[in-house]
Specification:
The protein is mainly alpha-helical and 304 residues long. It has one domain. The chain is 70% helix and 0% strand. The protein has 15 helices and no strands. Helix 2 runs antiparallel to helix 3. The longest helix is centred in the first third of the chain and has 32 residues. It starts with a helix and ends in a 26-residue tail after the last helix. The relative contact order is 0.10.
């Protein structure tokens, strides 16, 4: 069994698989993007896809190829600092970019008609209602936060972490799970389609975004104050004159950069919320706000 997993998730196989899925995603997205723009020309009420959405999706796919389809994926098993850098991109920047592009409606339009018909028929099946209820609970904001936290933390257990170095398939499974739960978490933060949950109020969404920084920063804080190497990597380096090694650099990356995307997104969400509050129309004066109704008790005042 071990040899089967090792063969399926060898570096070469993983590279080919990554390039295949990213290539298919880019092709379908581009096709859907062209389809939406074509429909927008025919219907003035339909808004074309904004350019930043396309840029964000392509940037996210490029980063996936960079850290999973290039030699960086193998280098992450040799150096701890590269490994945690891969984690930060998978948990923060990549899912943020992908969800920012709101890709599902675009990808849906880019799919072949036969496939869309088959999926629609399955969704209309009565058995889907049972699955939909379970899916609604599993993908709730609370469940997404717990899954993202547990999934991130479990790979920093020394014994589990060591398995990612010994077996390539475990490392590939690690990156797949991290990206999957991060996509779910950022789906709630950015409110991407499909919206099967009630939209969080602005203040709650800002706090929910900030919460995502702490599971990452706690790991960085523990590693910063660790007096010995917790993880054993073959390529260990030491800065001359500084008490900083490979694990120290990794801890700095997790602590300093781990929450940057989350905190930046929370700041932008707060700015948008305050701007929307500022441009709201002023409510007209209520009927009770006049001289007679506002008079102090005990003082005579003629009713107008």
């Amino acid at each position: 069994m071990e040899s089967i997993f090792s063969g399926l998730f060898s570096f070469q196989y993983w590279q080919i698989t990554t390039f295949f899925f990213v290539g298919v995603a880019l092709f379908v997205f581009q096709k859907g993007w062209g389809r939406i723009n074509q429909l927008a020309l025919q219907d003035s009420e339909l808004q074309p896809i904004k350019k930043y959405q396309r840029t964000a999706f392509f940037a996210g796919m490029f980063l996936i190829l960079l850290i999973l389809g290039s030699p960086i994926h193998h280098l992450a098993t040799q150096m701890f600092s590269v490994h945690v850098g891969q984690h930060i991109l998978l948990m923060a920047l990549i899912p943020c970019l992908i969800n920012l592009s709101n890709p599902l409606p675009i990808l849906w339009l880019g799919l072949p008609q036969r496939l869309k018909t088959a999926v629609s028929q399955q969704v209309e099946n009565p058995r889907w209602n049972t699955l939909k209820d379970g899916l609604h609970q599993v993908t709730s904001p609370g469940a997404a936060f717990v899954m993202a936290t547990v999934t991130f933390w479990i790979w920093y257990d020394p014994q589990v972490h060591q398995l990612t170095r010994q077996y390539r398939w475990v490392h590939s499974l690690e990156t797949t799970l991290l990206l999957s739960v991060a996509l779910l978490y950022w789906w709630h933060i950015l409110g991407a389609a499909p919206r099967i949950h009630r939209r969080m109020p602005p203040v709650v969404r800002i706090l929910y975004t900030i919460m995502g920084t702490w599971p990452i920063k706690i790991v960085g804080l523990i590693l910063l104050f660790s007096s010995q190497n917790v993880y054993q990597y073959p390529d260990v380096y030491q800065f001359s004159g500084l008490n900083i090694n490979d694990q120290g650099v990794g801890a700095i990356i997790v602590w300093a950069l781990g929450g940057f995307v989350f905190s930046s997104t929370a700041t932008l969400l707060a700015r948008d919320w305050m701007y929307n509050e500022e441009i709201k129309p002023i409510d007209p004066s209520p009927a009770w706000q006049n001289e007679y109704e506002m008079r102090a008790p005990g003082f005579p005042s003629a009713r107008p």
